[in-house]
């Protein structure tokens, strides 16, 4: 059986891209060695950066594209419903982390979030590749 070199290189690139994106999801492990004082300073900047990236991606890329494809105001309706649902989840189900100086107990949602993030990054790697 003869293999097409082009298909082999595509498969190799796909596997490498998937592995690279999966390894990038482990970047949080690096923060274990950082002191609490430095981590709290750094987390403020990282949260601001990630918030800006998500908001910019949503409002500058996704929403305009959705408006081009759809008819009417349905993208805005989905946006309002989505923001409202996640606001209610955070407020009433306590799906958030705490900032107590005395420390917090680990919430079960933390583990679910980390597992879900790892799985999401792996699937993203497969899709992008």
Describe this structure in words.
- The protein contains 4 helices and no strands.
- It has 129 residues and is mostly helical.
- The chain is flat, with a radius of gyration of 20 Å.
- The model has no long low-confidence stretch (mean pLDDT 77).
> pLDDT average, as an integer?
77
Which segments are poorly predicted (pLDDT under 50) over 5 or more consecutive residues? none
> Residue share in helices?
over 70%
How many H/I helices?
A: 4
Total DSSP E strands:
0
Rg calc: 20 Å
Sheet-strand content, in percent, reads under 5%
Report the principal-axis shape: flat
Separation of termini?
25 Å
- Sketch the major β-sheet: none
Q: What is the N-to-C order of secondary-structure elements (H for helix, E for strand)?
A: HHHH
- Determine the structural class based on helices, strands and strand pairing: mainly alpha
């Amino acid at each position: 059986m003869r293999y097409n070199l082009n298909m082999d290189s595509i498969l190799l690139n796909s596997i490498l891209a998937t592995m690279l994106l999966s390894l990038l999801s482990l970047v949080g492990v690096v923060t274990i060695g950082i002191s609490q004082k430095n981590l709290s300073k750094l987390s403020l900047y990282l949260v601001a950066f990630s918030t800006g990236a998500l908001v910019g991606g949503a409002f500058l890329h996704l929403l305009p594209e959705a408006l081009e494809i759809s008819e009417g105001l349905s993208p805005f309706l989905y946006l309002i419903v989505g923001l409202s649902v996640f606001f209610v989840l955070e407020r009433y189900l306590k799906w958030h982390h705490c900032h107590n100086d005395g420390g917090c107990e680990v919430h079960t949602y933390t583990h679910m979030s980390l597992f879900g993030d790892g799985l999401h990054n792996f699937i993203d790697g497969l899709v992008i590749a």
